[in-house]
Amino acid sequence: MIKDYRFPAGFLWGSSTSGPQSEGIEAGDGKGMSNWDYWYSIEPERFHGQIGPEQTSTFYKNFAQDVDLLVETGHTVFRTSIQWSRLIPQGRGEINQPAVNFYRQVFQAIRERGIQLYVNLYHFDLPYALQEEGGWESKEIVWAYEAYARTCFQLFDDLVDRWITFNEPIVPVECGYLGTCHYPAKVDAKAAVAVAYHTQLASALAVQACHAHNPDKKIAIVLNLTPAYAKSQDPADQKAARIAELFQTRSFLDPSLQGSYPDELLDLLEEYGLQPQVTDEELEVIARNTVDFLGVNYYQPLRVQAPSLTYQEGDQLLPDHFFAPYDLPGKKINPHRGWEIYEQGLYDIALNLRDNYGNPEWLVTENGMGVEGEETFRDQGRIQDDYRIDFIKGHLKELHRGIEAGSNCKGYMMWTFIDCWSWLNAYKNRYGFVELDYESQERRLKKSGLWFKDVSRRNGFLEEE
Ligand code: BGP
């Protein structure tokens, strides 16, 4: 039997990228140093192949050609981000005029093709000058971010369909303050909590500023909603999953959508002496400025079990004291990235939003498959990435099921339209609908790019089942 996976009228099809992963740095472009640029300058060996953030997929130079590729791959929506360090090189104060020209040209080019444009203000990239002042550990950065957000609304609001405050704000918390794969790569739970709180406050201030600038404009936050699945029904495993979800998901989801933090999370912070410094006014700002819609990035589930580590007074507090990873036997996996593939996670997210968060409007803002050595799949000049098509299809089927069950999802954006630079992994894993020949900078459509155009045109796909 052939099943028609058709999506609701007006459903948006596209992809996401970020400024720091796509633009690159050109001589004379006036860009200031970001935390990534700085980290690469002092520890290039941390970056795969020692390829740093200045050598990304050269969107700064080639955006006109890349925007054509958006059309060729059926985009009706596209998300990118402004680099704070490009627009305001020192984080505060002077604006870099070439950056204004660049972003206006890019945004105009996208809109002229009838593609909806979602612009994110922050994708893991802080101007280094602000990092030196303490980065997100310092509340001062919140006000600097608010001023930056206001500047963006003033300069670009006429060209932007929808705004986004932050991409995956829990990631810099986890990776930069509880782990070591983002700068400043230190492990300090109290600092991690302060960073998370300051980011949430900054997000709410940007929502407020966006609406003050243009009451009709919608603004979201993008969260990696990784559902936490317990190893078993055992109460200790169940508790571990609940706490993992509190830390990794609900710490931003609840304040962003409902305006307040879960009591259980606040109790835990108090129990371990981790509370950040908050004022009633700040909590009021968070309460009053929830987002208009939500972006959801989904790659993999989080499988957890009861922790094996017990916290002793004086220990460095770690997530491992609350939950331990659980390796599900026989799981489906993308071996290149080491991430489990669990399509049903998207359905579970859809229902969680429907049932526990008042069924807000949301979009999938990232989902994708990074593969190493894709050139081995080249046949007659084109990368035949059937694995990527299967990956997307599998997730779209679960999304379709969630939408049929009433969840309010309005679009799907893949990560990403062209192979791009990826933080510490640089160009190891390729994600694009379009192949980037790193040496020649030549762009070539992959099979998935052609397939996606067809999906977008027919607003879904047919599948023999
Ligand atoms: C998300 C980020 C993206 C992108 C993607 C793929 O978490 O928002 O910036 O990088 O993951 O992950 P990676 O690049 O680490 O393979």
Automatic annotation (TrEMBL):
It comes from the Bacteria. The keyword Hydrolase applies. InterPro entries: GH, Glyco_hydro_1. Keywords: Glycosidase, Hydrolase. GO terms for molecular function: beta-glucosidase activity. One of its GO terms (biological process) is carbohydrate catabolic process. GO terms for cellular component: cytosol. The keyword Hydrolase applies. Pfam families: Glyco_hydro_1. Belongs to the glycosyl hydrolase 1 family. This is Glycoside hydrolase family 1 protein. It comes from Streptococcus danieliae.
